[in-house]
Amino acid sequence: MRNIALTLMYDGTAYHGWQVQKRDVTVAETLEKALAHVVGHPVKCTGAGRTDAGVHAERYVANFRTTSSIPCDRIPLAVNTRLPGDIVVTKATQVPEDFNAIGSCQRKEYTYRIYNSRIRNAFLVNRVWFYPKHLDEEVMARAAQHFVGTHDFACVRSVGTETKTTVRTVHYFTITREGDMISCRVCADGFLYNMVRAMVGTCVYASEGKLSPDDIPGLLEGRNRTDAGPTAPPQGLYMTNLWYPVPNLP
Amino acid sequence: MRNIALTLMYDGTAYHGWQVQKRDVTVAETLEKALAHVVGHPVKCTGAGRTDAGVHAERYVANFRTTSSIPCDRIPLAVNTRLPGDIVVTKATQVPEDFNAIGSCQRKEYTYRIYNSRIRNAFLVNRVWFYPKHLDEEVMARAAQHFVGTHDFACVRSVGTETKTTVRTVHYFTITREGDMISCRVCADGFLYNMVRAMVGTCVYASEGKLSPDDIPGLLEGRNRTDAGPTAPPQGLYMTNLWYPVPNLP
């Protein structure tokens, strides 16, 4: 069996997240159906992370096993003709037998986008968190800086998924503004459930003066979710990069 | 009665164009319902042009008459809270009694966007014409240049609307590429039905060698729609600017 890694992008608006569910349409299910047509047998995809409903991916990796001999360079176009326009396979790479899109992933980057303008933008519905009250990106950036490093992130974790430990390492967390758009880019070895959205909500709280950036080390130590800021809404969140110990992936 | 001009933007994906119709949901109808709530009486809007189903506007102007004394600077937020997210009023300006969004308009600019990449982009569904075969934007630009000036544009006009004359003046028509995105910007004193989309289709034909840029003067003289290229699809078309003899509008 060949093990194939797909690089993809998707607009998550129409989907109930990545992971296959019983009732709702998900990205994985939609992709698996399209792949099955191309390779001629049922397919099971392993994704790099369980993105929530409404969350997007500019870059995402999933792998599947197949008996098909279709060349990798023909897979993207073949699958894309069977996919709706909001899911696109950009590349297929044959990977070692033991490769697993989630287990082999060394680092991931998410970008959270806040449209901080008094007036909405008609083209950004479902693509950003529209926040009409002015935010101070410098205060937010100072708050974000306190999350960088190896910490117990229990205070920015929503319950709902099992995990052995709540300790993670955040490699960088930058917050910058271009015009009305605030981009929060955060890279870590792994993320707890809702961790990015809770950290962004906490940075927004800091800009609003509801807590001080310097309170964050104490919040991390306290491990109490209710001490930190609220969870930012899903539509502003994008998976934007991934790192694997495999050449040319993603 | 005050005469108020609204500057707006809309993502046309969900609408059957600007103009009120019997059966389908249009931008004008949606806007008129929201305005009626704000001013407390039924409202009739005159728009700057009858955009087709699926066509967008980064900038658009419509005017309406009202007995309400609501200050102009309070209108955008008041109307936007009653509008769906894909229609946004960005400004309201009191204009002279005889102002009419279509009749007073001196020039309009449309931008047509072609996403010219072998692979689709999941975030540009309904926002561009996805064209996977490589286009030569320099050939397209040479073709576009032949449309500039005062001509009879019957060869790039679809039937369907009444007009006294098919003579129009195109002020500029530039075609440029940034990465995979080709932008066709055209400004004229007025446009015939489907004129931008037919001119873009003709420029694409020129890139494909199905006609030469130098054939265009002959096509214009011939006045025969079937001699020119096909009508490009609606979702790549955006109204992007308008000019009025009124200060600060739009």
UniProtKB/TrEMBL annotation, chains A, B:
InterPro entries (alphabetical):
PsdUridine_synth_cat_dom_sf, PsdUridine_synth_TruA, PsdUridine_synth_TruA_a/b_dom, PsdUridine_synth_TruA_C, TruA/RsuA/RluB/E/F_N
* The keyword Isomerase appears for this protein: yes
Ordered alphabetically, the record's keywords are: Isomerase, tRNA processing
Annotated Pseudouridine synthase I TruA alpha/beta domain ranges read: 9-100, 143-245
Q: Where is the active site?
A: 52
Q: Which residues hold substrate?
A: 110
Any one GO biological process: tRNA pseudouridine synthesis
Q: What would be an example GO MF term here? A: tRNA pseudouridine(38-40) synthase activity
**What EC number is given for this enzyme?**
5.4.99.12
Q: Report TM segments.
A: none
* Domain of life of the source: Bacteria
Which HAMAP family does the protein's record reference? TruA
Q: What family is this?
A: Belongs to the tRNA pseudouridine synthase TruA family.
The record's listing under PANTHER family reads: PSEUDOURIDYLATE SYNTHASE (PTHR11142), TRNA PSEUDOURIDINE SYNTHASE-LIKE 1 (PTHR11142:SF0)
Q: Which NCBIfam families match?
A: hisT_truA
Subunit and interaction comment: Homodimer.
Protein's name in the database? tRNA pseudouridine synthase A
| Organism name | Evtepia gabavorous
